[in-house]
């Protein structure tokens, strides 16, 4: 931080200072941070990091790099090396179905997307704009996340509790949003 302030006036110092202010704990890779910061630079509103979704027993079932829990929107940077093994690929597909069943929409991001950050931001913002309509169409009993999102958006002022457990505990798990904890 001190080095950034010492370089005041040099090219990109203001951007570096902004990026330092947006740094977050719980990020697993530099590409996750790069993706989130590229989105923030393009006026994508604040993104939560280290999203964790648990099953009714409290078991961590999925983890996202960043997203917006209120809009059931997750982002996952997909590096090739981390997803090439058969088990990781299988877990990713199973996790996708599990999250979709709970009302989540996940944007998978690859290296090519980082080369076109304006398009990536437009895709994210379009999905953000569509989220309220998507959530309004979901039954609040589908998952605790759907019930919470519907309440936050004002669709259901008082919904009886769903028979599921929701927590946002920080753990050391590095399970990707799409992967199921075995």
Mean pLDDT rating: 79
Radius of gyration: 17 Å
| Largest β sheet strand count, sense and barrel closure | 4 strands, mixed
Q: Could you spell the SSE succession in H and E letters?
A: HHHEEEHHEHHH
Give me the count of strands: 4
Question: Keywords for this structure?
Answer:
about 15% strand; alpha+beta; 8 helices; 4 strands; four-stranded mixed sheet; about 180 residues
Structure description:
The chain has 182 residues and is an alpha+beta fold. It has a domain at 28-152. The chain has helices at residues 2-6, 13-21, 30-41, 80-83, 86-101, 111-114, 117-136, 144-152, and strands spanning 48-54, 60-68, 73-77, 105-109. Residues 164-175 and 178-182 have low confidence and may be disordered.
In short:
Helices cover 43% and strands 14% of the residues. The chain has helices at 2-6, 13-21, 30-41, 80-83, 86-101, 111-114, 117-136, 144-152, and strands at 48-54, 60-68, 73-77, 105-109.
Q: Topology, pairings included?
A:
Layout: H1 2-6, H2 13-21, H3 30-41, E1 48-54, E2 60-68, E3 73-77, H4 80-83, H5 86-101, E4 105-109, H6 111-114, H7 117-136, H8 144-152
Parallel strand pairs: 3-4
Antiparallel strand pairs: 1-2, 2-3
